[in-house]
């Protein structure tokens, strides 16, 4: 168990790390929220989606969730009952199914495998897998501890705890997957080659520049009436640009927040309560017990040095006498009373050495051995010799068990606290999740005053009456607004702020401005008609009432849904046509500028890849045409985003040479693995046609 407990300390990088390594950039959206009631996760008879043509059933998915939940329990020593962790476990389960249905098939197609000898080398060879390096690191130094790994493997079959084997099989499987992915990416990367032509073209796009003079007339100079857009125009543009309007299913909503906040009356009741308690707190001789019995926040055992506390508390802590009291004062969302519980002179850092016993003998025998070692040390035995004989911390043993200097928070709490409060030279026996330690404090840094505070917090919360009043306001809007028009009218009349959340997908758990809003997302997808008004949700400390503003289905957006967007684009093009006709055929820029009652401007260092031009704006079309034009010729009108341009190239700079082309080729080739790492899996994701509909099925 000691080894397993050690591995649990590395669980902070476990879930995120494994997902990142296993799936690289295969990033899919977050999906769903918490279960309703105490029922199961799934509605019987429903499928959760499709990957690469394979239907994903809820039984298949649930098995994955159960598996990763068990792995999480092994790593953390606790159940995955936190909402964030639950979401992470569920997402990892889904990504595992993606891997099996997409990546594993590709590996098989290319006959990519990991042999048993290769796996042995990845675990125990000269260059172990990064997972092995991370999960079998020395607890004190963070460096890979081969002895730790070998002890774990040696005891795996004899360990009666099945969790150890489950964890190891999981880790081994992930090591194999990481290696398969690395091979696959390497295979594709070696097939990609940058030619001299590729390098020269890329370099020309940035290294070859032109300076230009130009005349521009803004699209705003043409009235809307001179560029009228008809229904036929919209339909024609839509037909010609239909691919631009491909979309995935989403919803737009607007919502009103009714913050569930304390009222003036609630503030008064809370203040009166803590003021009534103040004399007893001031008179208390056991402030720690008083805080434990009366505060909404547990007693904080930490000793703070000057500057670590908020300004108000810091000033009090380092100027008040032990009997003094601060408050009651309102601090944020709570009324507080503060007294000094204790003050001590403590160092910034200490130096210690230890002998670590890992508990393989059994805990009773290990504790007896630790007591015997402490007794021997007190009688003059050499610490270095006993550390070399008994300690499993090989890195520290190279220095006679010395851990060097460390701060209180550098070590696990029992170890750090004991070392900082103990006098120099004390030899102690301590137990942590790493095992049993025999510890000697060998030196202490400069000591300074630290203070432990006793704080009685009375949180300011809305009363039941207040909650009911706020709910009544929200419910009135919910029950009287029947469609979007009445929702908008009532919110305007009452002065409520409407918040917009757009492009909400079926698996979203958050929307713009609201966290953990799954209930709102589910409602938006249950409704079939725009303009539906919701009931009252309670989300993130607010009552929320929403209206469904837009429904988008998978496929191509219907023309009426994008008509306004198309109309603006068509009108922009028509205005550009009007200006282009007016500016066409100019003999020189000065006469054109005089005709348009404007001036000739200049911009330098324009290249084909320019997106933003100084003093011009975002005009990539102008940059592209100018970079390919001949010198001293007046161009035809160029229709840009903001206006229509006529220009002349005044000079050209050709900066690319053979040496630069060679360097560019080398740079592009070096970037291939990174491109493969992203683009390869994006292609696989697209080709797999993944349909993730868990949000429609899961409670």
Describe the structure.
There is one protein chain. With 699 residues, this protein is an alpha+beta fold. Helices cover 45% and strands 21% of the residues. The strands form 7 sheets. The protein has a 4-stranded antiparallel β-sheet with strand order 18-3-22-21. The chain has a 4-stranded antiparallel β-sheet with strand order 14-5-16-15. A 4-stranded antiparallel β-sheet has the order 6-13-8-7. The longest helix is centred in the first third of the chain and has 29 residues, at 162-190. The chain starts with a helix and ends with a helix. Residues 1-45 have low confidence and may be disordered.
In terms of topology, how is this protein built?
Blueprint: H1 2-8, H2 14-23, E1 47-51, E2 54-57, H3 58-76, H4 83-109, H5 116-124, H6 130-135, H7 146-154, H8 162-190, H9 196-207, E3 209-218, H10 231-240, E4 246-247, E5 250-259, H11 264-283, H12 287-294, E6 304-305, H13 311-317, E7 325-331, E8 334-347, E9 350-357, H14 363-378, H15 383-390, H16 394-397, E10 402-406, H17 413-421, E11 427-432, E12 435-444, E13 447-459, H18 464-480, H19 484-494, E14 498-504, H20 518-526, E15 537-539, E16 542-552, E17 555-556, H21 563-583, H22 589-595, E18 601-606, E19 612-613, E20 617-618, H23 620-627, E21 638-639, E22 643-653, H24 658-670, H25 672-688, E23 691-692, H26 694-697
Antiparallel strand pairs: 1-2, 1-23, 3-18, 3-22, 4-17, 5-14, 5-16, 6-13, 7-8, 8-13, 9-10, 9-12, 11-12, 15-16, 19-20, 21-22
